[in-house]
Every structure is written in structure tokens, then in C-alpha cells.
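User: Hey, quick favor. My workstation is busy. Could you predict this chain's structure for me?
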Amino acid sequence: MTLTKTGMECFFGGQVWAVYDTLDAMPRFYAQIKKVMSPGFNLQITWLEAHPDDHDDFEWVKEGLPVACGKFRYGKSQYSDKRLMFSHPIDLEEGGQRDTYKIFPRKGETWALFKNWDIKWKSDADSHQEYDCEFVEILSEYAEGVGAYVTFLG
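Assistant: No problem, here it is.
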């Protein structure tokens, strides 16, 4: 994808983009482009917020720990003129419930996985705000309850 002076031609209404986390510059937030305005670079976006079904996942979200995949729903809207906060466009899948959407790794994508991850981090979230990641390529489509095959990148 080549950006011109404003980069506006890469963005259009309805797209969902991964957005970089300012903590560690990993793309783990998501925003849907609602409206592209010009002149210059100005977008109206709506954030997607994690909306888990599982109790442990809900507690994880409640503790403010990062969520990069799972079930999401639309949250707050805002305007942004910060082009560099956007990483790449992604595809959404209907979530099975009204106004919910699923985001999971797709075959061929590169993802960062938490190193030595444990759902129990939610019990002591403050000590897990810093973490290490390993980068993987997704080799198969994700299946709920099963996961996906990956290969580690060196």
C-alpha cells in the first residue's frame, strides 16, 4: 500500500483498521472508518471494544489487560487526524449476536503472541502490564475452541 501526501485514498467508510497501542506499538485495537473528510486527513471512527462471553475473558478485559482477538462490539466514536495510528485494514466476521463481531487470526497473517501467557494474569493485572511476545505466522484458519496452526518467526 503506497501512501501519497495525505494517504486519504487508502481509507474509506466501512473499513475496519487495526490501530497501534501506544504502550508498545503493537496493533491490538480496532476502529471502523465511518466517514472520510477532506481537505487534509480527517476521519470519523468508531472504536471496537472487547465484548467477551466467558467469565475469565470478561475479568481479563475488566482489569485492562490487552485484547487482540475475540468478540467485539461498537464503542465510542471520535474524529482523528492521526494517520500513523493505523496499521492495516482487517476483515470482520459476524459475532452471532446482534451488533457483535469476531476478530481472529487469519491464515497468512503475522501475529504477536504473549510469551508464557496465562489467564490467571487477570488476578494480578498490575504485575503483567509488561510482557514479552513471540511473532508467528498463522498457517491455518482459526477455529473456535481449537485455535490455529502457527510457525514461529525467528
